[in-house]
Amino acid sequence: MVREYRALEATRNTPIIVLSTREDPKTKKDAFAVGANDYIVKLPDSIELIARIRYHSQAYLSRRQRDGAYKALHESQRQLMAANIELLRLSNLDGLTGLNNRRRFDEYASTEWRRALRERAPFGLLLIDVDQFKPYNDANGHLAGDELLRRIGGTIHTSCRRPEDLPARYGGDEFAVVLPGVQANALESIGERLRQAVQDLKVERGSSFGAPYVSLSVGGAVTVPTKEDGLLDLIAIADKNLYEAKTKGRNRCIVHE
């Protein structure tokens, strides 16, 4: 009977006092072995029986209260952890485009740079600028400019197909993509894909602009890191290539190894 009580979820932890006619050590041992909380040879004195029932009942209720408190604490910790994770996620996002923000870009780029340095693996970077964004913003208004940045951010995010790639809003109308493990020819292909994807949006500039649709200029650089502080040098090279793309007529991608 005790064994069956212990097998049921509803009575698994309920105190059980065995009343027996036998004052036998083996019987007592067997009773405790299958889960009895107490063993009394019947019929006991009523005062003793009530005292034992009261003792086991109070212990049982205290255990339930303790388990309930632990469960509530565990749930609170789970909710707090989930809230912290969500807060961290939001703190890493750019509020306008939904891409990673500059702070997250800096953290991730530094981490992946050190990893590439240890593993002697290539590290690629793209810097992206919206061509003639300020004139577009002035001509169409800030709301239209914000909507354009949102659409471009979404397009860049969709075009980054590898899970390790991190697209980010670098600042203003500039974007960046960290591409760990990418080769130079692949980096150029990705830059061209991003540029073409925005071109295919066919967002009209207006009649006063030279080109009919909004476009991107992209500068990229890739290297196998050889020193801890070389990331800034790579960013400077990518920025130089971006400037070259601008001076050569915009709407192009220039990548140097």
- What form results from the Cα inertia axes? elongated
Q: Give the structural class.
A: alpha/beta
User: Beta-strand level of the residues, as a percent range?
Assistant: 15-25%
Low-confidence stretches: none
Secondary structure: helix percent: 40-55%
> Radius of gyration over alpha carbons?
34 Å
Number of strands: 7
Quaternary structure type: single chain
Q: Could you give the order of strands across the largest sheet?
A: 4-5-3-6-7
Query: What sequence of helices (H) and strands (E) makes up the elements?
Result: HEHEHHEHHEEHEHE
- Total helices: the number is 8
* Largest sheet features: 5 strands, mixed
How far apart are the termini?
Answer: 79 Å
Average of pLDDT: 91
Describe, in short, the structure shown:
The protein is of the alpha/beta class and 257 residues long. The protein has helices at residues 2-7, 25-33, 46-91, 102-119, 133-140, 142-159, 184-199, 231-247, and strands at 17-20, 38-41, 123-130, 166-171, 174-180, 216-223, 253-256. The protein has a five-stranded mixed beta sheet with strand order 4-5-3-6-7, sandwiched between helices.
